[in-house]
Write a structure and sequence with these properties.
The chain has 291 residues and is α/β, with parallel strands linked by helices. The protein is 37% helix and 23% strand. It has one domain: 3-Layer(aba) Sandwich (Rossmann fold).
Length: 291
């Protein structure tokens, strides 16, 4: 056996031990065992205020947990109830552009799945390339394209977590999407549907890149979500994801955008996104109580 083959399984074993240690550390801090998780990306910060928080755990108090370095992302795990439903929420996520590996970016999802999660709701900020989209719109992800050049499943597979070659024909759960549509319609919230393309970032795209990304079938572009979704599906979690359209990325009418513009747009759309996520959580809770 070569050195590489000797070390690869050890690396996978060590990673798994880290994941299990972090999951155990969470269990030691709370009696809650939620099956619903939420990643509070850009545009969902207010949802944290809607959670009746029983336990808040800073990321740096969990073994092996990476820390979010983005100013607009808090770095803590919130455990409590949303619309009466037990939830665990990540207030802040990690990105590849921060210098983290795909395995580090998705470490929290591995931990939460090990902790007992069954369903994951994800939010993100994205640039809208579909000419029918406008700043402040919400988009329900129906599919995605991974152009980050990296995949969190590369390396030895942990069979206890999922198959070596997981199917990705339907990464976003159809029942959850239908539920989100129903809740948006009931509340009079316009909800676009489309394809999210993930790039590394952190710079925004050029006019030529926007044309290319639109040409290959993407409606919005962002720098997150896809690694988390891949790992969530690998571990058998159901996934729902929503994007806030924070800027209009039309090559022939492109205007310069700052991070302040992005955060302002996310803030404007936040109440709509919060309303849908809260309603979906309540519906999931009702269905679980019936079963």
């Amino acid at each position: 056996m070569t050195d590489a083959s000797n070390h690869a399984p050890l690396h996978a074993a060590a990673y798994r031990r880290q994941v299990e240690a972090a999951a155990e550390a969470i269990g030691e801090r709370t009696d809650l065992r939620p099956r619903l998780g939420i990643i509070l990306g850009t545009g969902l910060g207010a949802l944290a205020d809607e959670i009746d928080v029983a336990t808040s755990i800073p990321y740096d108090e969990l073994p092996g947990f990476p820390l979010s370095t983005v100013e607009s992302h808090h770095g803590r795990l919130l455990l409590g109830h949303l619309a009466g439903v037990p939830v665990v929420a990540m207030q802040g996520r990690m990105h590849l552009y921060e210098g983290y590996s795909p395995q580090e970016v998705t470490f929290p999802v591995r931990v939460l799945a090990t902790f007992g999660l069954e369903t994951l709701l994800i939010s993100n900020a994205a640039g809208g390339m579909n000419p029918q989209y406008r700043r402040g719109d919400l988009m329900l992800l129906t599919d995605h394209i991974n152009l980050q050049g990296l995949n969190p499943l590369v390396g030895p597979n942990v069979d206890a977590w999922g198959p070596r070659f997981p199917d990705m024909s339907a990464p976003y759960d159809e029942e959850l999407r239908r539920l989100a549509e129903e809740q948006a319609l009931a509340q009079g919230i316009k909800l676009q549907q489309g394809v999210y393309v993930a790039v590394v970032g952190p710079n925004l795209e050029t006019r030529a890149e926007y044309r290319f990304l639109r040409l290959i079938g993407a409606d919005v572009v962002g720098m997150s979500t896809v690694p988390e979704v891949i790992v969530a599906r690998h571990m058998g979690l159901r996934v729902l994801a929503l994007s806030v359209i924070t800027d209009e990325c039309f090559p022939d009418a492109l205007e310069e955008v700052s991070i302040e513009d992005v955060l302002a747009a996310a803030g404007e759309a936040e109440p709509k996104l919060t309303a849908i996520m809260k309603s979906v959580a309540a519906q999931i809770g009702e269905k679980e109580s019936v079963h």
